[in-house]
């Protein structure tokens, strides 16, 4: 009943406002987290972008659909290998995950030094009647990275209400916890907050929202191990989406992965 009332109130608030395109985020990096900047990534029929110092390229797509994403081989760093050069990403009625292209070759011989933490992730939480309760995907960047979308883009779809949350201005608050091995980093918890929009998944109309999040990278693979907390509130502080009971009692993800990285971008 609570979700039905919330969905009805939001439907009224959302009318007349405009929605944003989905953001496809691609990472080109080695298994040890060494990233390649300046690599051209193309979404077929949409456009291209080049990777930043964290190996991320972000390309807005106009609609929920399945897209072919390719890396231009001639823009890879010297000594780098990559196969395959093309992959598909499905953003049909879902939160698009980060699509990873894994590099090989000489570039991957030395891992990057430890620095500020950041997050990539994608997957689902819970399941009812064969449908996930929530789907999530995106990137949370460290403050020292000059990326589009002001610190990342974090997407969550609540399948019970049909609402799509997009965190668009994100700040990393803290990095803590214990060391992990995949990739090898010295923390496994990232806390972040920010602002964004909420609207019907695949439809028109959004409202401004604020959010607080925590991701815990417990183990590889992440399904059944990693944990996520997210609370989204509207302009009157009403809770419009929540995953997990509290920051100290997050939900365990059902499928997918949450992966914390570190970068030397402040050195």
Kindly estimate the percentage of residues that lie in beta strands according to DSSP.
over 45%
CATH homologous superfamily caption: Immunoglobulins
Count the E strands: 20
What's the story with the biggest beta sheet? Answer: 10 strands, antiparallel
Blueprint of the fold:
Blueprint: H1 2-14, E1 22-29, E2 40-43, E3 47-50, E4 56-61, E5 66-71, E6 80-82, E7 86-90, E8 98-105, E9 117-125, E10 134-140, E11 152-158, E12 163-176, E13 180-181, E14 184-185, E15 189-200, E16 207-216, E17 227-233, E18 239-243, E19 251-252, E20 255-262
Summarize the structure.
This protein is mainly beta. The chain has one helix spanning 2-14, and strands at 22-29, 40-43, 47-50, 56-61, 66-71, 80-82, 86-90, 98-105, 117-125, 134-140, 152-158, 163-176, 180-181, 184-185, 189-200, 207-216, 227-233, 239-243, 251-252, 255-262. It has 1 helix and 20 strands.
Labels describing this entry:
267 residues; mainly beta; Immunoglobulin-like; ten-stranded antiparallel sheet; disordered N terminus
Describe the structure.
With 267 residues, the protein is mainly beta. The chain has one domain: Immunoglobulin-like (Sandwich). Helix content is 5%, strand content 48%. Strands 9, 10, 11, 12, 15, 16, 17, 18, 19 and 20 form a ten-stranded antiparallel sheet that branches. β17 and β18 form a beta hairpin. It is globular and about 50 Å long. It starts with a helix and ends in a 5-residue tail after the last strand. Residues 1-20 have low confidence and may be disordered.
